[in-house]
Amino acid sequence: MKTILYAFIKNFRVLKDVNVNFSQDEGWNYDPESGRLTRSQNDKSTEGLFGSRINSVTSIVGQNGTGKSSLIKWLLERTVYGSAPLPLGGIMVFRKQDGSIKAYHDVRISNKKDFPEGTFIEISESEYNDTRQDLAIPSFYYSDTFEPYIEMTVTSAEYTGEVNMSDKFLLLHDITSYKNLDWAHLVYPMREHMNAFFLQNNIRICTLLFDKTFQTTFKDDLCASLNLPRYIIFSPNTSADEMIRMQIESFKEIVKKHETNDKSIIDKKNELEFLLAVNGIPFNRDMERKDEAMGRKMLARFLYASMKSILFNMRHTLSFASDHIAYALGLFTKDYNEADDGSVQWISKTVEKIIDHSSVDVGFGEYFVGFFRNLKDTIEFLANDVLWHDGNPYLDIGINQDNHYASHFPTLQTSIKLITLMKSTSFLVERYFDMRYSHHLGKYSALSAGEIAMLNLYSRLKYAFDNPLNGDRSSLPRLILLDEAENTFHPEWQRLFIKRLTDFLNLAVPSDVKVQVIYTTHSPITLSDMPKGCTVFLKREGQIATNLAAKDMPATFGANVFDLYADSFFMNNGLIGEFASQKIKELAEEIERGDWCRNRDRSEQLKIRIEEVADERIRSYLYSRFYHANPSEEIRTLEDRIRKLRKRYGQ
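The structure assignment produced for this chain is given below.
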């Protein structure tokens, strides 16, 4: 486990000779001309400020185009993508778990002897790949920007230790779950990708709504500013069934065109025969039944269709278990045709027969039995623990009559069972049902952009810590990179952003793990929660962006928001909108010209426009110039005021 203390970026996109400190306890600086690397201690260290499970939080600020996102990309390429098969392009300094310092560089450092406790590794292109694992840190990346066309595939990103939770990446990632594929790089129509992304994202959010970490972090908001949905509704996901039908049509065409005894064609014929058997009874899509008994029967038919797709997947990955799969297929095809009511209970009994049959196999049977036991738990959950409306199962999150979340919500037994089942690889609701949240049964309920963004961020963070890559806990994120995550938040939610984020992470991150947070922002409100030593100020001069030196950095922690706007976000042209600024300037110029003085109507219009200016100082200035150009207007205004006062007091 290691933490990034410092980076020097020599030349990357718009960034040139940028020193970036990520530790609030010390400051590093590199001078490209002399090659000297220096370090200074922060006497006002705020160790432990952000909680026991967070090493540091660093804010990256600056105007548009100053390289905030580029800095995040630079870090990703060097600490995640296997440190990137590229020159390092600067210096990276880490603190290891034992407290020692390790620095990697491919620029000249002339004073290494000044750091006797540090280890310096100079990287050349020829030996660069040997150091990739030394630099790599498991990372979480989040951005709410939408850019669907990216170079990296789902599989390659996850192998390099990145939990990429940006919308643009999940557009690829989620269809792998929804369509049961290994990976897909926009090979389906965009509509398919969007549908899969929407439905899988619902699963993440619905899971979050039941999560104690979320409820604890937002307990004060559950009864106030958060308009969270009441219901979680399950509706059929027919993608696996569609995939089987697509395969049937494809193999029919291949067999028809190549009627030979070639082995590959014989295999295709056998595959076609298998698929036709698996397809069995077509799924009745009409789940909208007012009668609950009919709704349950429709659910049983859907579970049957789901079982077909499960067995279809097993045929591909577990060919050595063909006898078990063939037996299961035979049971479902035969018994379902003969079943009187096609009930969910019948499905459960059939699964029990499969368990009994497979238990005799000491080897693979143990896995097979475990799989179907999980499956039986899922079926019983859908049959017994959920509520029903119009033939669809649903869960009631629990709201009392005052529209406040009930006190029993954090310990709702059904939700606990749901979360347990979702951790099972055979959970039908995750892969064969679509979960959606709603304020009303049978309807989709739109949330605000800010509410969706908030749920997106925290559901994806929780997902990353609950689902380590390849099940390996060592792959849990240690570096959290957030690129303008609070963009769509109301100013009040921006004010709460750092508190909510740190509270959530201190609960969601396992006790034996510490994380480092680096985020970019345009919000001065979030910056008022950041000590000066935790902030990097980027500023652009021409085509080059660089950082402010420590001595030039403004104070931030607890600072007035308006001062932060002017000092930290380099708004040299004022703090009012450019449109209003231009109109006020035009108003002042017209007043100075004085050609309105003899036009009574125009004079009244100018007074109305002056009254519209909210800033008292600007309004007073405009009035002073207005009266200076036409003193009679000031007399008329004073006389009007005297008349109004006399009328008020009855004189």
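Interim note for the steering committee: The longest strand covers residues 2-12. The two ends are 82 Å apart (CA to CA).
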